[in-house]
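Collaboration report, partner site 2.

Our partner group contributed sequences for two proteins of shared interest, and the home lab folded both. The records are reproduced in the order in which they were received, starting with the first partner submission.
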Amino acid sequence: MVGYSILLLPATTSAGVEKMKYTIPAIQTPYQGIVFNSGLEARWAAFFDDMYWSWAYESFTMRGWIPDFLLKGKEQNYLAEVKYFPAFSGWSEVLPKMRKGVADTHYESHPVFLLGGLIECTTVEGVHIATIGRAYSFKTEHHLPLYVVDYTLYLSNKPIMGRRTDTLKEAVRAVGENYKQVQVAFNTAGQLTRWLRGKENQCSGQ
């Protein structure tokens, strides 16, 4: 198995990421009539639209936590949090607040999606697949990768959002090097959110 990552934010050094994390405030970004608290959140919303996934932004408040997104899956809804951490260990800063928020609700038994600033492209048995984040279980305290194949989100081998109904293995065989589709979607979303913030005078490809 080999892999590499695609940044969703401007490339920087590890030291630069840490500095950005603590000293540079998030830039409010409008998209689809909604003002997002950060450009990264807006980029994820644009990506969800590119994938034809149904979403709502900060649609309700839980105990001490406002989930960034509610994503509507095939059989149930999922909560998603967006943060840019250089490593998964960074999530330890916010997981306690999220755990308190879902306590004694039906979401406590559902995995929560942790979405960051990059996607991982991995080759498995000669086929490239894209990992867009992690699904974290507060019950088991384990996390599993979230895969995207052909506009469909997979948790383990099961499709949970999107148009496909077959297993991950079947979808990978059918689609092939689908990570390119995901890369294009993220790049397009990034151009859109930078344009909306006024950083560019036009949005290429739009």
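Second partner submission, folded after the first:
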Amino acid sequence: MTESAFINPDRYWENIARTSLKKNEELEDKMKMLERKSIQQEQWINDLQSGMYINCVYCGHRYGAQENTPSSMADILKEHIEKCPKHPMSQLKEENEELKNKMQTPINKFFYDKCNGEKDKI
């Protein structure tokens, strides 16, 4: 038999050890990344709840701490996003309204008016 036909046990275990170490390093890197993201999210939540100012990244509108505000800063920002003219969601809402208006064709209006506005008769 030739020498290449035999498995060298030292190299076999060495390869397993290298593979295992590499996987452990990859897992450690992923865990560190997740920990960093978790810390960033906690900081963001703390900033929102601490009364700091927050800005809309689309229009620059600034919201600050208000003692008489019954909702959280996150809720205030969500409400602003729904109304912000520069936010991408505003464009989607406008397109949706345009489509709804286009659906109001003269024939639909005729049937609606004919039924005296009672939708269940249409």
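Feedback sent to the partner group on the second submission included the following. The chain has four helices and two strands. The radius of gyration is 31 Å.
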